[in-house]
Specification:
The complex is a heterodimer of chains A (about 200) and B (about 375). Chain A has about 200 residues and is α/β, with parallel strands linked by helices. In chain A, about 40% of the residues lie in helices and about 20% in strands. The interface between A and B is medium-sized, with 23 and 37 residues.
Chain lengths: ~200, ~375
């Protein structure tokens, strides 16, 4: 099993990375998986260049292949201006929009205040739904106060939420056949030309 | 003379400000510059000049056969082509007529490269729907193919008015239609289309990593054989390339960098060095261009046509003409010699009107 952990935190160290690591640990405690952590900060210029040139350079391509070839993905973004960060969105924009189809994904976010926690549900979850990924029901939001807080009468503490989300992702991974290694990808598929023509018939003679 | 590999240039026809002077040529200057570049291509011994087709600023070549007809009248040997002719938004009947007329005027020195175009609004401007891009390319070419091969055509399709008893005039020169290349940057469907008809396939091979084009050409070669036109090695492949040369490679880099940094398409992005590493762009000495171009054969197999992009990003005409001197005098003669070495006999040369006529007249063998 391969688990790709994508984090868009910008500071070093960042709380997004901290959350991503906690989520990855909680997942690998339940299923055996090789973890690859990807800090998008290191790829910010490569991602921007991919928009300008229309293709990812060698370094970015290798990372994209690691993410699209993973059996599961943990994706964590800081919440900026009420939504995912631009870098986080940009990274998923340069990935082919079918490459994550059916991939189990655990989403997480960090922010200064718990008031932005629903950004996970109204921004991050729809992004992965569009990509036809399978997003686990529990999304984990960590506000600054969560790092020093505990559960209250109405909400689980951060640790419990991480454990629940990780359990949901682990459950999906356990029932999954590991993806083929990179390089074993299928040959270029093509619709035979007769079929392309036939789709236009009976009008063409 | 049989040309095994044709060498030439293709022009996008962009009107771009020269970043080193801030000067923007007028449309008139750019059109005349394209013609001067085409004439120079013949003068320095190149085989092909191809023009793009665009219907929006900052591009000038909206009417390729008009320009190519003018160039035809002022040249003797140069093959006139396109890169690309929009098979999606042009009426295939008009393509059939325009290029047959050009073929007669140029005594057969004409072929064309079909493409879908990459400018979204062109589709609605010409009454088409971009979501139908591939079906338009398939149906329109099916009609074009028929118009050049059957004297009287009855036709009904999805995308244009039906035809009853229609004859496209003039008929192709000597009854031999212009050779067709299909150009595509990303669609396996187009590689499949080229293979089905036994036409040529052109990978623009600029601005993108070569691996991407290798996949498409490999697919085209396999499918060419599948449809019984020959072996995969006999499929007719064309490649683009982009170069800038000075005798001293540091001079080339220094002079080209501002044009690169501000270029449409890739400017204001990666560094020149990174882009050279990631794509087939070569900026350096003629020898570096030779070495890099020879690698194309290793990546793509023996091929039939090599076109270079030489005149974009606001390079002044004088510079482009100097580039063509270097290309014609120092690069292409070496490439011709090197490409001929070890080229299997069964790999066909580049198609010309003469070769297609000879093939048509050859006795059919069992």
């Amino acid at each position: 099993m391969k688990l790709a952990v994508v984090t868009a935190g910008l500071t070093q160290p960042s709380s997004s990375r901290l959350l991503a690591d906690r989520l990855a640990e909680a997942v690998t405690a339940q299923v055996e998986a090789e973890v690859r952590v990807i800090e998008l900060r290191d790829l910010a210029v490569d991602v921007a260049n991919a928009f300008v040139t229309g293709f990812p350079n060698t370094r970015l391509r290798e990372v994209i292949e690691a993410v699209t070839g993973a059996d599961g993905v943990v994706a964590v973004t800081p919440i900026f201006s009420g939504s995912y960060s631009g870098l986080f969105k940009s990274f998923f924009d340069v990935i082919d929009n079918t490459a994550l189809e059916g991939t189990p994904v655990l989403i997480g976010a960090t922010g200064g205040t718990a008031r932005h926690s629903l950004a996970l549900e109204h921004a991050v979850r729809p992004l992965f739904t569009y990509l036809r990924a399978v997003v686990v029901p529990t999304a984990v939001y960590a506000a600054s106060e969560d790092w020093g807080g505990a559960s209250d009468d109405f909400t689980d503490g951060l640790g419990r939420r991480i454990a629940r989300a990780a359990g949901e992702l682990a459950e999906l991974l356990r029932h999954r056949t590991p993806k083929a290694k990179a390089g074993e990808e299928a040959e270029e598929e093509v619709v035979p030309f007769e079929e392309q023509l036939a789709a236009l018939r009976p009008l063409i003679q | 003379m049989v040309t095994t590999v044709q060498f030439g240039i293709f022009s996008v026809g962009d009107v771009t400000t020269d970043p080193t002077t801030g000067r923007t040529p007028t449309e008139h200057e750019r059109i005349k510059a394209m013609v001067a570049i085409a004439l120079k291509a013949e003068e320095v011994g190149l085989d092909v000049f191809a023009t793009g087709e665009h219907h929006n600023p900052p591009f000038v070549p909206s009417s390729p056969t008009t320009m190519l007809g003018y160039v035809a009248a002022r040249t003797q040997r140069l093959i006139l082509s396109t890169a690309t002719t929009l098979i999606t938004t042009n009426d295939p009947v008009k393509i059939a007529e325009d290029f047959a007329m050009l073929q007669h005027l140029a005594d057969g020195r004409v072929d064309l490269m079909l493409g879908r175009g990459n400018t979204g609004p062109v589709y609605p401007w010409f009454g088409q729907d971009i979501r139908q891009g591939i079906p338009l390319a398939v149906e329109n070419y099916a009609l074009l193919h028929k118009l050049w091969r059957e004297d009287v055509v009855d036709w009904e399709g999805r995308f244009r008015t039906p035809l009853q008893g229609f004859t496209s005039t003039p008929r192709p020169l000597d009854g031999v239609p212009p050779f067709v290349w299909h150009g595509s940057i990303r669609s396996p469907e187009i590689a499949e289309q080229a293979a089905y008809y036994g036409d040529g396939f052109f990978a623009n091979n600029i601005f993108w990593p070569k691996e991407h084009f290798i996949r498409l050409i490999t697919l085209y070669r396999q499918r060419y054989a599948h449809y019984g036109h020959g072996t995969p090695e006999q499929a007719v492949v064309g490649l683009g390339g982009q170069v800038f040369m000075r005798r001293n490679s540091q001079d080339a880099v220094r002079e080209f960098r501002p044009y690169f940094d501000n270029a449409p398409v890739y400017g204001h992005g990666p560094s020149l060095e990174d882009f050279m590493a990631e794509t087939p762009l070569t900026v350096g000495s003629p020898q570096q261009v030779i070495d890099r171009t020879l690698e194309f054969r290793e990546h793509f197999g023996d091929y039939q046509r090599q076109l270079f992009l030489m005149d974009h990003a606001g390079l002044p005409l004088k510079t482009v003409l100097e580039q063509l001197d270097l290309l014609g005098e120092e690069v292409v003669p070496v490439l011709r010699k090197e490409f001929a070495k070890g080229r299997p006999e069964q790999v066909p040369g580049a198609p010309t009107h003469a070769s297609l006529l000879a093939a048509r007249n050859a006795p059919v063998t069992a």
